[in-house]
Amino acid sequence: MRLHRLEIEGFGPFLSRQIVDFDAFADDGIFLIAGRTGAGKSSILDAVCFALYGSVPRYEGGDKRLRSDHCEPDDPSEVVVEFSTGAGRYRVTRSPEYLRPAKRGGGLTKQNSAVQLDAFIDGGWVALAAKEKRVADELDGIVQLSREQFLQVILLAQNRFARFLLADSKERQALLRRLFGTERFEDVQARFDERRRASENALAGAAARVDTRIDEAERVVTDGELWGDAGTAPEPSSTAARIGALRAALGRAEYRVERRAAERDDAERALQTADAALTAVREDRTAQQERDRARAALAQLEAEQPEIDEARRTLERARAAEALRATIAAASRAESARDAAVVAESAARAAWDATGAELDEVSAETLEAWAAERTRESGAWARAAELEDGKTALRSEIESAEVVVEAATARVAAGDEQRTALPARLADLTAQRDRVRRSADRTEDLARALASAGARRDAAVEAARITGELESADRQLAEASTVLAEAQTALAQLRRRRLDGFAGELATALVAGEPCSVCGSTEHPAPAVHTDPVSAEDVERAERERDAAQTAERAAQTRSAELTSRLSAALAIADGLGVDAAESETAAAGDAHAAAVAAGAEVVALDEQIAQATAATAILAQEREDAAAALAAAREALALLAQREHEAATQIADARGAFETVAERIAHVGGQASTARTLASALSERARIEQEFAEAKSEQDAALTASDFDDATAARTAMRSAADQEILDARIQAHRVQREKERSLLLPLEMRTLPEDPIDLAPAEQAAADARSAWKTATDAAGRVEAMTDQLRRLIDSAASEHARSAEQQADHEVLRGVADTVAGRAGNTHKMSLETFVLAAELEEIVDAANRRLSDMSTGRYQLQHSDALASRGAASGLGIVVFDAFTGQTRPAQSLSGGETFLSSLALALGLAEVVTARAGGIQLDTLFIDEGFGSLDADTLEVAMRTLDELRSGGRTVGVISHVESMQEQIPAQVVVEQTPAGPSRIR
């Protein structure tokens, strides 16, 4: 990774835009960032870190003083950094959050942070991302270094050199964990501990289940009094012994089951004998009762016999009379028909007499002949009657024809009038169409105007809605900023308290007679008191809370920026119109457009009317000819109808005679003929029915003579309906069957010679009840013993099998516990190193080896760093210690015992070694730019020369090294410089 260019404006001590061209120092390989203390040298590195990661390590846990205090409210704040990797060249532009003048209402409003990532492609910059989350994801893949790794391998900031060298194992583990991402090994340890606890719980549960089942089994044995001669449970011993004692009790229970089963079988046989005796007595009692009932029923049937004999005689006479029913009925019907014929003849003769017609002989034949003659006479008048009936219709036809003639005359006149008025109408329609067409031609322009007005109205509505959302988002952003500020303040306080308590924390690890890890003294006269303890976990928890608050604030900033952008776009589209004004404009545009559309439709209608009027001239001429022809035809039809009316009047007068109408004359003659035919038919019908009555009467008399009845009246009296006959027959048959049935039932019962007195069931029932009670008692006792024995057997078998399984689980648990303790640094782990510490120790060894390659030269072979896995005192975290081997004494000593210059060289070597290892672990990325911000002023001339020689070696391979220092000798040795100086007005500048 190589930095090319840095632009700073409104950031830190810089107000106006300052530019640093790192490519200008590529040939020198090393350059110095110089300036007086407080001028802003370190702010250059802060700007690089802020551009890439959005944060500055110096301000963690406190107020983010990123925006320059020299900025006016309208001044911008921005950092731009250009860099390249193997993937290409990139540019990051980032602005911090700050307050600016509000666009509406006066006062200040929060300007959200912003960031944009560009790539240099085909000779130009192309935007890749513009949201913080997306930019962070893209940079993660491009830079391939986290912020912590970046600060260790590229930007070695102040106070970070000695921090890694002098840290204890716990702090060094936290740093290495962030650099190498070894949290997964801590997860492995946690999973093994979880499995160990689960195994312990399973074993405890199994033991509890075994004890519970054995306790339950012993309770069953005690309740069943199965302990044998001892009478009580044996003294508590091993689980196996308790199970053995229970198995002995189970044997006694099984013997008791056999005894109770035998008693139950004896009681069951006694019950069967008593039940059989009771059944026999009950059967005799039932037979006795059935015998008495049959005797009473047979006596009742004998008493009903006279009634049954009378019913039989009635049934026999009814069946004899049934044979005469048809003959008697036929004679009755013939007599009734004869009487009706006499009445009909009398009525017909009276009607004939009323006609006033006279015949020499009134017989059926003469009447039929007279009626036929009258019918022939009336047939000649039928045509006249039809004409008479149609006279009104004919008159209507004539009147209609007259109306048709008048209408045809009117149509001819109207056609003439239309032909005269048509030219003037055509001219009016043409003028109207031309006027409407001019309005319709503006339809498209008005449609565009309506669409524009609608867009402005929608934008105005959207702007009003977004304004409300933006106010809510600004409130949420203010709340999130407050929460973040509180979290940062709390984190800073915790860190300050932890730093203040380091002395007390170190004092807690002091052991009398052992050397102090800071000063090396074995005497500790006045150890510091740890009055306000703050653990690393407290700090980490506060950092997580700060990060969560920071994430929430960023989300709120993003939301506010997005709403602001959307509001600006909506206001631009609305063109300054409010919702009401935009609605009015849209309504007016809609009305104008609707009028134009209606005018277009009217033009089409007018064109059609003009075409119709043009074609109407020829049509009217043809209609004039058609109307004249229709008029002539109507007049001819009227003349024909008048002639028909005259001829019909002549025929009607001839046929009417002395009657008012022809129809009246025809009806009179037809009535006489009908009366004559009715009388003729009545005479013929009476003669026929008289003959039939005589024959039926003769047949009835012959049948009565051959029967047992004296006359027809006696036969009718004896007759019964079919239903009555069935009832009589069913009663007779039922009596016969029931009497035979009772006799068949009574005979075998009488043969049993049962006693006449009622049989007593009480003695047999009592004996059966006693036997059943004894059987139930024996069955219940056997069931209880069997249930107790089954329960005891199940409990013993379950406890024994669970006890066997728990022994196997115990062996597996011992293996799992050993692995979990080893991974967690417990028990047999002599170095008390967890798995994560072991992995980090291997990384630390590589870091120390890489550092020693430089430290040996820098210390002229005197010092070497060594990884130490020695146990820390009082159970403190160990395994990641660093000690210094002094070749002059041949002994190792704590790093804290080094002088200031020695500490600087050792820290520099260790930082460079750490950078090499982290770079290799990050995929072997190329580091072409390196910054070192550390106090070179504490070094003497020789040590400074060694440091400069080391820095000069770092230029190999085209690397550019930037050093921050105000030491004059370094300014003399490094000609390539970036000078940061304060202006008289206050802001700093770069030259």
What are the SSEs and their pairings?
Elements: E1 2-9, E2 18-21, E3 30-35, H1 41-53, E4 78-85, E5 88-95, E6 98-101, E7 108-111, E8 114-121, E9 124-129, H2 132-143, H3 147-153, E10 155-156, H4 161-166, H5 169-180, H6 183-223, H7 239-303, H8 305-322, H9 325-355, H10 364-379, H11 382-389, H12 391-440, H13 443-500, H14 502-508, H15 536-574, H16 579-656, H17 662-706, H18 712-718, H19 722-751, H20 762-824, H21 835-858, E11 863-868, E12 881-886, E13 891-894, H22 900-921, E14 929-933, H23 941-953, E15 960-964, H24 968-973, E16 977-982, E17 988-990
Parallel strand pairs: 3-15, 3-16, 10-14, 14-15
Antiparallel strand pairs: 1-2, 1-4, 4-5, 5-8, 6-7, 8-9, 11-12, 12-13, 16-17
Helix pairs in contact: 6-7, 6-20, 7-19, 7-20, 8-19, 9-17, 10-17, 11-16, 12-16, 13-15, 13-16, 16-17, 21-22
Description:
By secondary structure, the protein is an alpha+beta fold. The protein contains 24 helices and 17 strands. A hairpin with a 6-residue loop joins strand 6 (98-101) and strand 7. The two termini are 25 Å apart. The model has no long low-confidence stretch (mean pLDDT 79).
What is the strand content?
Answer: 5-15%
Measured on Cα atoms, how large is the radius of gyration?
66 Å
Q: What class, by secondary structure content?
A: alpha+beta
Number of helices: 24
Helix content: 55-70%
Low-confidence segments: none
What is the CA-CA span between the terminal residues?
Answer: 25 Å
* Major sheet description: 6 strands, antiparallel
Strand order of the largest sheet: 2-1-4-5-8-9
What is the average per-residue confidence, as pLDDT, rounded to a whole number? Answer: 79
Shape: flat
